[in-house]
């Protein structure tokens, strides 16, 4: 186990020693596991989870060992199915789909609502599982659960109009999603897809979220929602979950490399698809002077260590404003709080309010350390390098999955940090002198999901924003994936297939008129909403 980092040497001798921290009572992994076993005994067995297919829980698959990124505590690992078992699961999913699509909408609404009530009753347990499995701080974990529940309730209230004149797909929707938002992205999508009349199939992310997803699916299945949840390697399960003729739509959230392979497969098959992929989201600073407003916004960008598809890891700054920008930026990054999400000084204390906890695993932290060191060796200028000594940790805690906030100026073009999303708490700054340079730097990754541009003049923003290749562009404020009726998609290589959000999500997983062209990025057309 790695020793606790030493106290900050910048503190003078008169500073009181930091209190010794301990795990808050009732929040251990063992506590969360026992509560999961009690809440859904059908889905958990002793020290492992089960796969869900054909409306039953199966003790098949070979569980991988797993540890929590929080402190390397052993946790339940995914029970990986092989390709043949996945095919059986998909075929059973088609049988469920054919029955479910005949269920009246009134009944579907009632069952989904009952599932949401059950999720609400286990809100804190679902959030605690997210803390241990993917390292989310407590408030962000609760927000992930709440966004899923509240978002689907919004769809329940408006689904009648959204499905009018439309029909479920010919086969179930297959969901392959990254680990970072198991509830507000994956469970949310699955429940809306089911509400629209489709059976749903999902692959658990290999890197985390297994127990949380298993509990959520167990609660939904009890209410009659037709869900399948299986574990396995993407390579092994892809023929079943992507290429099977039984699948009516593929919904993917993840990186560009894997997304490109999925996109090629679905394009070859002419299959309905929703592929959300990464892009380098950028924040531009041009003819801007409202610096006091920027500082709190910058700190907010470090939520969950920037491990989300709408994070802002790149700031493109007008050179003549750079000194003022640094004066606003550095206090924000220096104020970021990170560490163990469940560590408290006194058992009665509330859980800490942290901006982020660990990265998803130690390998990711090591990768970022290597990329940062390499970029600096090739000429990047370190403007801020946080220290684990500033973290909020238990005594003698394993901190191998933690990486402190870091900011680099002018990463070299040979560095991955110059053109790719780091998916961690590393900011890169690029200085520009002209509007053309600003736009080129903001469009470095050939398409993004979101971007922001801070400039005082609204007319300037209105002229430049359409030239930024991002689906959403904020004026002096961050943009997010959005909830409820807010649409979401991406430009360039950041998105393939149908756009989602609001009624577009329902349209993406239902069939309308024969000549319908869905808004989205398709091989033969691009159509904005």
UniProtKB/TrEMBL annotation:
Keywords, comma-separated and alphabetical: Oxidoreductase
Comp. bias intervals (Polar residues): 1-10
Region (Disordered): 1-26
Domain Aldehyde dehydrogenase: 62-503
Gene Ontology molecular function terms on file: oxidoreductase activity, acting on the aldehyde or oxo group of donors, NAD or NADP as acceptor
Top-level taxon of origin: Bacteria
Transmembrane segment boundaries: none
Protein name (record): Aldehyde dehydrogenase
Species per Swiss-Prot/TrEMBL record: Streptomyces angustmyceticus
């Amino acid at each position: 186990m790695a020793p606790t980092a030493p106290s900050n040497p910048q503190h003078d001798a008169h500073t009181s020693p930091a209190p010794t921290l301990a795990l808050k009572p009732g929040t251990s992994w063992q506590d969360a596991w026992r509560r999961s076993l009690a809440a859904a005994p059908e889905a958990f067995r002793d020290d492992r989870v089960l796969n869900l297919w054909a409306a039953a829980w199966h003790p098949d698959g070979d569980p991988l060992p797993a540890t929590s990124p929080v402190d390397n505590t052993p946790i339940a690992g995914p029970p990986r199915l092989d390709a043949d078992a996945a095919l059986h699961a998909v075929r059973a999913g088609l049988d469920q789909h054919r029955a479910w699509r005949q269920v009246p909408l009134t009944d579907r609404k009632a069952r989904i609502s009952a599932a949401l009530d059950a999720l609400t009753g286990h809100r804190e347990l679902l959030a605690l599982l997210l803390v241990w499995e993917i390292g989310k701080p407590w408030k962000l974990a609760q927000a992930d659960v709440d966004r899923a529940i509240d978002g689907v309730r919004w769809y329940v209230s408006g689904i009648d109009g959204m499905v009018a004149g439309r029909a479920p797909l010919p086969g179930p929707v297959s969901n392959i999603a990254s680990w970072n938002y198991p509830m507000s992205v994956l469970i949310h999508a699955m429940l809306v897809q089911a509400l629209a009349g489709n059976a749903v199939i999902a692959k658990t992310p290999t890197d985390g979220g297994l127990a949380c997803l298993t509990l959520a699916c167990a609660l939904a299945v009890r209410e009659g929602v037709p869900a399948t949840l299986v574990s396995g390697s993407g390579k092994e399960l892809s023929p079943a979950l992507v290429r099977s003729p039984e699948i009516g739509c593929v919904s993917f959230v993840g990186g560009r490399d894997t997304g490109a392979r999925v996109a090629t497969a679905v394009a070859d098959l002419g299959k309905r698809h929703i592929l959300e992929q990464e892009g380098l989201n950028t924040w531009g600073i041009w003819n801007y002077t409202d610096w006091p407003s920027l500082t709190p916004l910058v700190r907010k960008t470090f939520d969950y260590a920037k491990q989300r598809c709408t994070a802002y890891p790149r700031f493109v700054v007008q050179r003549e404003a750079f000194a003022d920008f640094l004066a606003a930026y550095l206090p924000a990054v220096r104020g970021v709080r990170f560490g163990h999400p469940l560590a408290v000084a006194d058992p009665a204390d509330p859980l800490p309010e942290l901006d982020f906890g660990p990265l998803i695993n130690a390998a990711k932290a090591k990768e970022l350390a290597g990329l940062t060191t390499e970029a600096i060796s090739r000429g990047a200028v370190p403007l801020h390098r946080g220290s684990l000594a500033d973290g909020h940790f238990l005594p003698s805690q394993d901190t191998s999955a933690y990486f402190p906030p870091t900011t680099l100026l002018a990463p070299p073009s040979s560095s991955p940090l110059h053109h790719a999303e780091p998916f961690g708490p590393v900011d890169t700054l690029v200085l520009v002198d002209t509007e053309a340079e600003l736009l080129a730097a903001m469009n470095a990754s050939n398409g993004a999901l979101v971007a922001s541009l801070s400039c005082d003049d609204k007319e300037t923003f209105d002229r430049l924003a359409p030239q930024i290749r991002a689906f959403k562009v904020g004026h002096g404020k961050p943009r997010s994936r959005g909830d409820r009726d807010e649409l979401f998609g991406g430009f360039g290589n950041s998105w393939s297939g149908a756009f989602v959000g609001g009624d577009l999500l329902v349209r993406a997983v239902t069939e309308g008129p024969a000549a319908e062209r869905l808004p989205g990025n398709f091989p033969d057309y691009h159509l904005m909403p």
